[in-house]
Amino acid sequence: MDPCLDDCVMFAKRLKELGKKVNMDILKGLPHGFLNLAITCKEAHEGSVLCAQRIADLFKEIEICES
Known about the structure:
There is one protein chain. The protein has helices at residues 5-17, 42-66. By secondary structure, it is mostly helical.
C-alpha cells in the first residue's frame, strides 16, 4: 500500500552494498503516511510506536559512538 516501498527497498539494498548498517521494517497493511492515522487506527498507532523506538535506538547508537 506504499507507492514508495520499492524505492525504499532498493535504497536499503544499495546502502548494504556500500557496507552501511540498515534496518528496515515493512508494516503490512499500512499506507504511506500512516503516521497521520495514528490517532484513529490501532495498527497505525502501533507503527508509530515502532518508529519512535527505532529513532530512540539511533540516538542510543550515536551516544555510544560519541563516548
